[in-house]
């Protein structure tokens, strides 16, 4: 397909193939959808300065379009034009039928070209919001893939792309559109060129619906979503499937809003059903990925001051003890607080220089936190490069009984880590030599000295940027327990744990930073990702894309998002072997048997001719 995505820049590295795609706009965030489309395409979403773009990558291609014959070339009697009545007084134009898109795909997926061993972009779609999209959220993969009688209400969502987008106009938009890519005929409709309003998201041009979630007075700093089977109304006893969206912003000391949206009918706008004031602005929020209804309502709120809290929006309490008071908004319950370790200036000599006498006081700053181990543990990334796991349910090797659920903890706290490690990416190593004594920053303002002050000298006081991406690793056996791949980004360092369960088991007995790089057997160690180049742009986010089972290399493909481009790291080879590779293998085997392993030009031509003769003979027989 033509477009800016057709021919990326390709670079071969020891860890795999790097593909760099140039984008025509400023991008802020990206997500990989956990479900494949009907034709087997992988779906990637990214938010940019005007909305959201959806990319369908790989899979079976569209069938060639059949060009319709003009009316004057149709056979006699084939015209469907009706008789025009001159006596009709009705001047109304007949209503135009809505376009019914029915894309058709090839029967088999096209084999990859050995010179460009990566799937191409099949289709792309722009959803125009008219404002920046800063953050995206999708339903947990475990919820989208859940099966059984209790999950039948979510079956319509398995044929849709459902995501929440936090926008610069203070709204959070919940978008629902078909998972199948639109056909080329759908994008070539003439009305799209004559009516520009059809490009706006929510017009239904692509079968999409948009629900506006209001309540914020500042742009949202993060969004998360999950599914819930709650009552349709407060007085109703009928339970309907709903989507619960949570968002946080920096209003006042921090604000957390939650909305309920029914799955059966997406309304135009929804007001929040819970509004929670935070003690400090949140860094990130994430709903529990477990399909257990006991844990699905748990929201992880990570605060930059060094605290992670777990909020249960279904365990309701009233802020006022007076039961007679009505009209009080419902509030959930804070179940548990998790505290990061304290700062240590010995590991960061420059902290004293920039933080003064208060350096070393207080807890480490949290960069990001995510649920792991099917929502039974939490992994956190700190600003000094340390990462750690809180095993709140006792799922780790030799772990004691968990804290939540079994012991009924409510309002408790925990600070001890179950596993720690370092990715060594927060501080840029200084050049060896004599330690430099910091000098005074005061420079007298004279014509000869006013330019002597270097505004770019020293270390930046800005917060370290980073993120954690947790992805479920596809297993070849449906009965086996799903593994998880954890990707870290901190500053300019990217590190991956291909299999968290194996890594945890191998390092459970180690203490004090046992998770250093390159230790442990294969498959149970961290790997630093090298040669990530965004051509001078800063990283805006990371994401993992699930691969087919039994593929070599990393457990997932890695997406690194810049400001006007993104990079895909494809490692290893796919599990299925193409017929081209099989033919080359059979050819080499035949040559080894006949010529003792020496391959010449005549031998290749003879073997190819034999293969063609056998293929033609087979066609004549059948």
From TrEMBL:
SUPFAM superfamilies: WD40 repeat-like (SSF50978). Residues 103-112 have a biased composition (Acidic residues). Residues 66-118, 430-463 are annotated as: Disordered. This is Nucleoporin NUP37.
